[in-house]
Amino acid sequence: MTRFVNRSRPHTESGARHLDEAAENDPLFIRATARTMMVLSAFHETDRPMSLSEIARAAGLDRSTTQRIVHTLRQLGYLQRDPHDRGYVPGIRIYDHIFDAMRLNRQLQPAVPLLLDLRRNVNERVDLSLIDDTRLVYAFRLPPKREVLHAMMVGLSVPIYCTSAGWSVLSRMPEDEARDLIRRSDRQRYTAQTLIDEDAIMAEVEKAGETGYAVAVEQLLPGEIAIGAAVTNTLGRPVAAVTISGLSSDWTPEEFARAVSPSLMQTVAAIGRA
Amino acid sequence: MTRFVNRSRPHTESGARHLDEAAENDPLFIRATARTMMVLSAFHETDRPMSLSEIARAAGLDRSTTQRIVHTLRQLGYLQRDPHDRGYVPGIRIYDHIFDAMRLNRQLQPAVPLLLDLRRNVNERVDLSLIDDTRLVYAFRLPPKREVLHAMMVGLSVPIYCTSAGWSVLSRMPEDEARDLIRRSDRQRYTAQTLIDEDAIMAEVEKAGETGYAVAVEQLLPGEIAIGAAVTNTLGRPVAAVTISGLSSDWTPEEFARAVSPSLMQTVAAIGRA
DNA sequence: TATAGCTGTATCGCTGAGTGATACGCAAGG
DNA sequence: CCTTGCGTATCACTCAGCGATACAGCTATA
């Protein structure tokens, strides 16, 4: 399920060493704060409850330090013991923070009603994602009538280099910046169709630059066709993206674009203006 | 908008002092970890970007400590400067953690398709919320066709004592436990109809104990009618709740219950079994 | 144009908070 | 039986975090 999850991980193992280096020359850097977040981030790499030792290993810390941090986070409600199984899982207090993050995000608030309108027009799945360097983070998802897959995907992230939304985002950047981002990406083939060659990707980006949207067929998931367009701020910089996705068996790329791209373009323009 | 938000706040001002007391006798308690989470929690109390001093005040810390923690969290992507305005806002890295919390929550995974089915049957809003002591935290929300209000409410929390879902949750607890929870709640009148008297609330709880569901009219929001039922684990303990809500102008409580309670009860039973 | 108050940033000596090695009781599995 | 992993608890050392202090830049009020 999380096969195509693309976490940014500055705080795990190799990342931990990097942070310690950064801390050496930075008198304002608090190691304990970083370690705390490393413990919380340990759960990125698992799909079941984690024991103390597992957390320690994933976070790159020793058992004692992990014990203390886990103990403290447990007191505060950010971690809890799994009621059924052994081990620890993220606690409910996390939900408060995502609520803050969404509430205080300037892009999201005005976008919601616009996305609902869009979904009304096109009866496929509609997603809004935010840009975080080389990845897109899903912030909002509206399932279609016939939902097959997972629907609660807030926080799921996908790569920029091989998604329709990503290509449209790249098309709104200067070329050298886009190429640099592609090079920094950890490119892998999720399907046989996944593009990983820089120039091949840039060809899609250029097409997106002309039409305003990009269409991707089975880049990330078999059977999926997606069309994406970037939301830009008043300076023309991409800040988010909207994706509409359906089944590749239902549409040719051309039909799909003809059917939904007008509504899509109208929506991203409206969000950018809001 | 956040008028009825009901944050649990163990780490702010008076809460901070409480934590320091706890830390004195607890050799495993890391002050720096708690302080880090206090800084992140500072955003619970605002609806706009916060300056360093504002964060410090909200978190109950001095400016220097806040500076260092904010600096560190910024390096890690948990805080960022607001691009338009001054000040800091939560960063995008938060999204990774909510994804973990949802992914690893045993209640949520099997519930999603069941909730989609439920929404198909009843054309009103459907919510799933998790229990956190005296409050219910929204984990999943499916908007109806005609959505009026805010739709992306993951992490929003509402009180247990004056909601339909809350009453149904209380009805699945021993009476003394339920009464204790009500007493510990910070009861306030959100509307003229809001029940705050312990015995009045317990009367609704008893009704819910008989029928299995509770109906609340304009308890939290004017014009809202809601029906809620608890999800219980195999031991009979309440672990979550499902709510269906509509407009009180469209339904009498009896009609509403007759129309949707069968589907609702079927859904919560199925989630509990999953 | 002072000036007062805010912002974010930077410096620095002191000390106790955090560290990490170590140990213990318990439960599961062989 | 022994082993291995779990969560928990203890303790002396020391350097990481502390918090007082200072400063440049920006806004707004006087």
UniProtKB/TrEMBL annotation, chains A, B:
Sequence ranges assigned to domain IclR-ED in this UniProt record: 93-274
Annotated Basic and acidic residues bias: 10-20
Annotated organism of origin: Pseudodonghicola flavimaris
Top-rank taxon, per record: Bacteria
Keywords: DNA-binding, Transcription, Transcription regulation
Annotated Gene3D superfamilies: 3.30.450.40, Winged helix-like DNA-binding domain superfamily/Winged helix DNA-binding domain
Ranges for domain HTH iclR-type: 30-92
Calcium listed as a keyword: no
Official protein name in the record: IclR family transcriptional regulator
Annotated region described as Disordered, given as residue ranges: 1-20
